[in-house]
């Protein structure tokens, strides 16, 4: 039976130059920031805001610093939680930013949380805008329209690293990631998926099998990046009636799209499903029930609520300002 899966490209390596600590993932982050910066500046010129160039540069600089700090801190606290050492980061917070493993090999910062990055970046932009007297909502709208396209490249970096792979699948487009967790061949569901995907079953009952996975990084790159950016940039950007709408639309749109893509991503092994509403047995590697929710889905649900709240509050704020402008002046 032919293999009904796609082997991960053997020529694709995390390092740009083998032996040197320069990785595609880091380069993709730089590309993402550069694209967002250029799109932001394009909107500034289009709206004739006359912002000094160093103001925009500094806004992005502090936004990126906040993003990186928030992304790393939330990832370390939530996703890299160590059951054996629950207070590891409390005892030594510097470990959150320590880029070496136990053998002093350079690994970079292992793990970045999108939701933490969103919180950290948002807080940094708010503080900078307050200090410089800029409109936080206006600057936020410009950023919301620019960010998603750059985000695409971050997920491509995850794909090149072979990390954040999806759940097991026997669809024809499943990819066999070389570093994915191998699964016990003795399990019935593992055998069923292997046979459906055309993967030979080993004879030993103790053998482990590497099964094809959903390329969830590519799903995210396309839907959370390209599709969301196209909607915000070409549909909503020039049709907004009040400041803050694009911020709410971005937060709501991302949360909605990511919520459904989470069904194809494999949950973190040390967390699994924080919310289980189904009694069916559900290995984290399989999509068995839509009623078992991951940590990412919980965050995304909160994002949807937050985005809708931003749209509602900004709309009310705009109407209040409009009424004040129409009030007759006292003579």
Please give the structural blueprint.
Blueprint: E1 6-7, H1 24-46, H2 53-79, H3 88-91, H4 114-132, H5 136-161, E2 175-176, E3 183-184, H6 188-196, E4 208-209, H7 216-236, H8 245-261, E5 275-276, E6 292-293, H9 295-326
Parallel strand pairs: 1-2
Antiparallel strand pairs: 3-4, 5-6
Helix pairs in contact: 1-2, 1-5, 2-4, 5-7, 5-8, 7-8, 8-9
What does this protein structure show overall?
- This protein is mostly helical.
- The protein has a domain at 7-201 and 215-248.
- Helices cover 54% and strands 4% of the residues.
- It has 9 helices and 6 strands.
- It has helices at residues 24-46, 53-79, 88-91, 114-132, 136-161, 188-196, 216-236, 245-261, 295-326; strands at residues 6-7, 175-176, 183-184, 208-209, 275-276, 292-293.
- Strands 1-2 form a two-stranded parallel sheet.
- Helix 1 (24-46) runs antiparallel to helix 5 (136-161).
- The radius of gyration is 23 Å and the shape is elongated.
Summarize the structure.
By secondary structure, the protein is mainly alpha-helical.
What characteristics describe this protein?
331 residues; mainly alpha; two-stranded parallel sheet; two-stranded antiparallel sheet; 9 helices; 6 strands; 54% helix; elongated
């Amino acid at each position: 039976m032919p293999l009904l899966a796609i082997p991960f490209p053997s020529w694709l390596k995390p390092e740009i130059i083998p032996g040197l600590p320069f990785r595609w993932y880091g380069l993709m982050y730089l590309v993402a920031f550069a694209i967002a910066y250029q799109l932001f500046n394009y909107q500034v010129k289009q709206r004739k805001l006359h912002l000094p160039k160093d103001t925009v540069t500094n806004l992005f600089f502090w936004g990126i610093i906040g993003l990186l700090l928030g992304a790393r801190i939330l990832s370390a606290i939530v996703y890299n939680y160590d059951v054996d050492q629950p207070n590891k980061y409390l005892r030594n917070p510097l470990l959150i930013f320590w880029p070496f493993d136990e053998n002093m090999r350079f690994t970079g910062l292992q793990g970045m949380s999108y939701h933490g990055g969103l919180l950290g970046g948002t807080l940094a932009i708010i503080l900078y805008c307050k200090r410089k007297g800029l409109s936080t909502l206006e600057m936020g709208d410009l950023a919301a329209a620019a960010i998603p396209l750059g985000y695409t490249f971050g997920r491509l970096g995850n794909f090149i690293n072979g990390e954040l792979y999806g759940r097991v699948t026997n669809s024809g487009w499943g990819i066999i990631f070389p570093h994915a967790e191998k699964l016990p061949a003795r399990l019935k569901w593992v055998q069923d998926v292997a046979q459906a995907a055309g993967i030979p079953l080993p004879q030993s009952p103790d053998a482990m099998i590497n099964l094809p996975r959903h390329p969830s990084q590519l799903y995210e790159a396309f839907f959370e990046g390209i599709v969301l950016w196209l909607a915000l940039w070409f549909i909503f950007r020039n049709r907004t009636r009040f400041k803050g709408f694009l911020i709410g639309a971005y937060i709501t749109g991302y949360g909605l799209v990511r919520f459904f893509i989470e069904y194809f991503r494999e949950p973190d092994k040390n967390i699994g499903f924080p919310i289980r509403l189904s009694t069916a047995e559900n290995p984290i590697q399989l999509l068995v029930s839509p009623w078992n929710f991951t940590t990412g889905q919980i965050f995304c649900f909160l994002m949807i609520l937050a985005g809708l709240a931003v749209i509602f509050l900004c709309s009310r704020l705009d109407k209040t300002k409009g009424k004040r402008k129409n009030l007759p002046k006292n003579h």
